[in-house]
## 1
Amino acid sequence: MRFRKNDTITLNETEKIVVKDFLGDGGQGEVYLVEKDGTNYALKVYKNQESSDFRYNLKNNIERGAPSSNFLWPKMLLDFDDGKIGYLMDLRPKNFVSFVSYLTGTNKFKSRGVMLKWCIDLCIAFKKLHEMGYSYQDLNDGSFFLDPDTGDLLICDNDNVTADKKNLGILGKMRYMAPEIVRGDKNAKGEQQMPDVHSDRFSLAIILFMALCLGNPFEGERLKEYDIVDEQAEYEMFGSKPVFVYHKTDKSNRPIRGYHSSVLKRWAYIPLYVKEAFHRTFVDGLTDRENERTTELEWLKILTKYRDELISCPHCGYEYIVGYSEKKKYEVCPLCGKETKEICSLHVGRNIVSMELGKKIYISHVDKYSSGYNTAVGIVVANKNNPSLWGIKLALNSPVEIKDADGNVKQIAGNGVIPIVRNLKIKFNENTIGEIR
């Protein structure tokens, strides 16, 4: 251990850092709770002397700043006398729990809608990361944290983020790495393929699958072929012979009944368009890494559609999709078997949003050029005096215009309430007109 409680790190004549506690020990370094200028931070100190390239990359990332507030990004670089380095970052708030604790069942999302909010935040974060010219390169279950009640996201371990197509030696973690990275394939230049945006997208799809299904997309019946899952077994399952558990034609690696119960149960009720996106990445994307791996923008459209379709059973509260684009709509609740409820929907552009209490309308619904997939501008509420009357409570900067079935036109203030009435047309702006059906 490099520091002990109450040790002081002198930065200059006026600035000092006081060590308050030891937080943990990882593969690369030690993490401490420290105080600087009256504010608490986490300090990561590397155990070994890192290369000049690593230091330069870390310094450059600090100067450029985080892609979004979802990243617990390095804030200040520290150089020590022995040539080793460290950095300060913000502390993780106590309301956030690890993604691992969700996978093991210790913590659960408040609802499926909240879980999808987290998944959407994850895609937005990596879209912004990639737009800045970065690749994360080491996506794994230990990189992410979540607020179970709100679906808010935090991403840690950002010190290995580098400019795309550049690598500082970190390949990733088995079970989350793209197969070409596991195998050590050669790129067009004859060099070993290193992590990049395309391998990030493969790993992102694995994290999304695990969030939605609570299992790994390549762990199924083939586990029975190995007495022990050692390095060779992992190399085959995730590198040389990966088979998606729900491959349409190759059924050799289906989830094992009684062992992969969560995957079997959850996959059954995932919308067809979500399944197709996974199949594309985990089957076609195995060989065509540049064209057949679902992008962040594609995931955003897919996952927001999934969230828009969610409704809850009035009898047991189970969340399921209406099934606007499914081959067969649910006539009874998938859980309790009781009759489903009739529900109105808001049709705006290509979006169809189920109108039930608490359902939110987002900027991306009313502005096709916006990336505000998690920025709400309306929510379905009930009238306080007459709960049977519902409306959309707005949070817009400008009024909207509504027209009822009889042709009557009325303006609703940007903070007003749009009544949920059949065949009501809503003009959100010059480019966006919605309708309640």
Note: The domain at 8-89 is CATH 3.30.200.20 (Phosphorylase Kinase; domain 1).
## 2
Amino acid sequence: MYKFSIQTKITLPFILLFAVIIFAISIVTISLFNRKYDEQFSVETREWLEAIVQTNYIYEPEKVKRAYRAEVVVFGQDGSISSSTFANPTGSLVQLATDLKAHRVQKQLRDGFGDGFILENVTVLSKPYKAIYYLQSDGHLYCLIRPIGKIAEARRQAILLMIGVASSGVFLVICISYFIGRNLSKPISNLVAFTHRVANGNLNIQCELTTQDEIGNLTASFNQMTVELRNSRDELIRVERLAVAGKMATSFAHEIRNPLSSMRMLAQMLLNPSLTEANRHQSLKYILEEIERIDLIVKGLMDFAKPERLVRSQCDLRYVLREIMNLMDANLRHHKISLIENYDSSIGPILLDYDKIKQVIINLLLNAIESQRNNGEIRVSTRKREDRVCICVSDNGKGISPSDLDRVFEPFFTTKLEGTGLGLANSKRIIDQHGGKMRIESILGKGTEVEIEIPVESNTSQE
């Protein structure tokens, strides 16, 4: 389906309407002109013939030719040419008789057709003429022939003039319609462009009021709506920020409450003078462990709230993963978990932050280890998918319930007895910074699979 602009919809009907009217008027005018001129010419020709008959000039063709500047042809009773004023008609008499249709006209006049005269437009020797026929009393057919070449030229000039006038009129209508349509559609086009900018999220602009009509009222209403929408958005953002801040504060307070309670209890124990040195040393050790736990919670929260800039470089993904597996080897062997690796050798160096990706993979492996029983299995593989590299970490552990699966990337959400609930949230943030995607699929009781996609060439922001 064709799409027409508002300006086209406004101007096109006017142009078509006026074009039809102008050309119709031109055609009717030309037709009336031709008809009236032909009637006038025919009446004048008949008057000439009547004057010729009355003055007996009918028997003197040459005088008629000189007086009226017309040609005369006289046909005998048998239809043959008796006399003619045409120059050098010899050899053309048969053609001349044929052009003038002498036999047919002579028969019509003898049968009483017309009132003694017949007028016809004829072409004689390839030239246009107006011919008037008169049947004489002796049976001869008298034909007065007036050239109408000048009439045809005048008619042609009149047609050209009318075509010129009609074309000028249509052009004038097009110009007027264009300016009218432009004045009507320009404010609408500006408003449409403004709505696109608002739809793209720019609520800090106002559409210029260029008219004081209904379109101007619509623009003013839309400006007011934009202001109200901006205020609503700002209020929504403020409320959302307060809600997030409250949720994070609540989660943070909940996370550090247990270590603080333990530290308080241990500190009270240290005040007991009867406490042995060994118990005092053990209590101090526990206090330090709880402080480290609080520090870990605070660091995770800071990483989530204000992530550091990426420091990217060209890295061999297989080398990065093998180094991580070597670091995790002791942990895997301790939990009697087998590791299966399958790396795509066609993947070349890619642009990534080595330390950040290392942090993500280690976090995924730790989650997989914690969800495993002894003699479990973890699979790590890579493959290339068009312009992206996929890293897949899967296990056959206890899995994640469907109700928890939608919340695994929420800050402070965890199903473990210990942990901050920021590991997956920070991991997803890091992958998002790389311009990639992280997806988790899990079946309760069968295992979990985490897939990471990283663009081979990433131009995303590193903030």
Note: The domain at 6-156 is CATH 3.40.1840.10 (Profilin-like).
## 3
Amino acid sequence: MKLIKYGKYTGEPADAIDLEELVKRLGNFFLQSGFESQFYGVSQMDPERSMEALREAILRALQEGDLLPDSAMSDELRDMLNDPEAMNNQAVKDLLDKLTERLANEGFINPQQPPQVTPPPQTSARGQLGQPQDRTEARFEITDKTIDFLGFKTLQDLLGSLGRSSFGRHDTRDLSTGVESGGVSRPYEFGDTLNLDISETLFNAVRREGAKVPIEMNYSDLMVHQCEYQSSCATVVLLDCSHSMILYGEDRFTPAKRVAMALSHLIRTQYPGDTLSLVLFHDSAEEVPLSELARVQVGPYYTNTREGLRMAQRILLRQKKDMRQIVMITDGKPSALTLEDGRIYKNAFGLDPFVVGQTLEEVNKCKRAGIMINTFMLASDYSLVNFVQKITQMCRGKAYFTTPYTLGQYLLMDYMSRKTKQIH
């Protein structure tokens, strides 16, 4: 009788990897901002995302360890991954192909097959011969699911570093009727949320008619609970994408993008009445959909702060919110200005008095419109301190001189801790 011996099924190594942890490890690759690029051109707003580059990024993540559990990591596989020629190993190629396939199936990436173009055939004595097809490198795009996931993970990490924190809403000193009791009851008025204070309502009726059954109630007996009035806020993130954001051996733009994504996730999930818009400023300024935030890159640009403030004002003045604010993230001094005839005046050396004066005039317009500006400086150059202090003094805002590593903590703390003194 033939015996069949079964062993324990361990599964494929690619199936043992947590995809969410892999996407988190690939965050910097997905959000690359041009820091590793050597050339800058018009293609910077549409970064190259080849499948081969993705496979290399996955391999680096695997080589860092902890992604594959010990049960799936054999000595042979570990040696293959750590081999300098790992990309030429067929087993490693198969592993990377399966992981990219899983990422696509789970909706984290959207593979894009290159177009196949067949030139007109050549005519020969025996018929027609088609020429080889022109195959370009396969590409991929990250999906909204990946962008949302990375924003959530960034927010989770930032809130964890802050310790215990209450999301809440934006508190004010005013009271309104609602579900949560926050103060003494008051007589019901037409239009109030009908959240009755039963005991006070009955007491009014008994006090008027005396203790008898049935209790007859009038409109004037009705009492409703009061809750804290919660305001709404319109925010524009003004993000500097000038060339200096990736200079001096440090990538400041990618952390700034992460924080903006985390803020977007926070507002969407915890402050549904708030709005968030994104404006990039460089030689000029433009509003960018939040869904495109992860894909933008820096360029060979100057810093036109005034134009960014102008666009932010136009966006905020359309919003009917109790609070309106600009969150400006930058690392450099204003170095460009849009003239009345549309030309751009540029001066990268020092704080040009003409540029500074026009920029501060725009800040003054924000003040008159009731728009607060909070500035997050990713540099601490002495010449910039006075300029930023003038901005904060003019519009009741705050200035934070921080680093790419602490930017998120400061920004979220500021957003979640705004109290009565800041909006009254």
Note: Residues 13-112 form one domain.
